[in-house]
TrEMBL record:
Residues 166-218 form the Thioesterase domain. This is Thioesterase domain-containing protein. Gene3D superfamilies: Hotdog Thioesterase. SUPFAM superfamilies: Thioesterase/thiol ester dehydrase-isomerase. Signal peptide: none annotated. It holds the Pfam family 4HBT. InterPro entries: HotDog_dom_sf, PTE-AB_protein, Thioestr_dom. It comes from Penicillium citrinum. It comes from the Eukaryota.
Length: 264
């Protein structure tokens, strides 16, 4: 028997011994092997180690599951205010896209509905029922007037989920519709308009508890003073496109609507 076949046979026998009795090893029985003088580990020691490892994992997973299932804080509560501050800190410090946009002089940063009073905001869907860290905890807009383009940064909370951990498609459609309208209405001299058509393609899940960016551009060639075409992509912080949408907006002839201000 050549040396290669012998080594293979030795490994096979050794594995069979180890499977039947983990304390046994072929080298204790092979010629030329030295006696193993190390004391076998106690089975109770291994049990304590396993209990510690799996017990710690169970506690960590339990806490994570408890946080996932817990009801999100109500808007205006102390817990909600803490969460809002954390979101603002993450927006200022942890998002490279914010720093890039701020360094670009073509973009002007603002909040949403800054020209509305608190009373007026309470009657709007995204600044009223969807307000707070459980909904749209943070919304910021970067407007590029030269390119007629908006880049919005939004934090989606756990209170607008459809399936657990995933943002409801209707909530996404609402945010996308508003961003499409932001660029479309900027095209209208009347500074007002309504959605006439909205098409949405969901490409990948959007997870709650995360920041996303919306990149919305006006089709300047097709748009007029009374009808505007726009497109939008919702991306995660790695740049992956999760949702794509197009919209058509018009200026109503008979319906009187409020004129928007210079900020969003």
């Amino acid at each position: 028997m050549n040396s290669t076949r012998f080594l293979r046979l030795q490994r096979l026998i050794n594995s069979n011994f180890a499977f039947r009795n983990p304390r046994l090893s072929l080298r204790n029985y092979s010629t030329g092997a030295q006696t193993n003088t190390s004391a076998p580990s106690s089975p109770w020691t291994r049990r304590f180690i396993y209990v510690g490892i799996f017990g710690g994992l169970g506690i960590a997973l339990g806490k994570q599951l408890e946080q996932m299932l817990a009801a999100p804080p109500a808007p205006g509560s102390p817990e909600d205010e803490k969460m809002i501050k954390k979101l603002e800190w993450a927006y200022e410090v942890g998002l490279p896209i914010v720093h890039r946009l701020r360094e670009n002089p073509d973009y002007i940063e603002s909040g949403v509905y800054e020209y509305f009073s608190d009373e007026q905001k309470s009657h709007r869907l995204t600044s009223g029922p969807l307000a707070g860290s459980r909904g749209l905890g943070l919304q910021k807009v970067f407007w590029n007037d030269r390119e007629m383009k908006v880049v919005s940064v939004v934090a989606f909370g756990t209170g607008i989920e459809g399936w657990p951990t995933m943002v409801h498609g209707g909530a996404l459609g609402t945010v996308i519709d508003e961003n499409l309208g932001r660029v479309a209405i900027r095209r209208f001299p009347a500074r007002t308009g309504v959605t006439a058509n909205l098409n949405i393609n969901y490409r990948a899940p959007v997870y709650s508890g995360n920041f996303y960016s919306l990149h919305t551009t006006l089709d300047q060639e097709r748009s007029t003073d009374h009808k505007a075409y726009a497109k939008c992509q919702l991306r995660d912080m790695t740049g992956r496109v999760c949702v794509e949408a197009t919209g058509i907006f018009v200026v109503p002839k008979k319906l009187q609507l409020r004129t928007i201000g210079e900020t969003f």
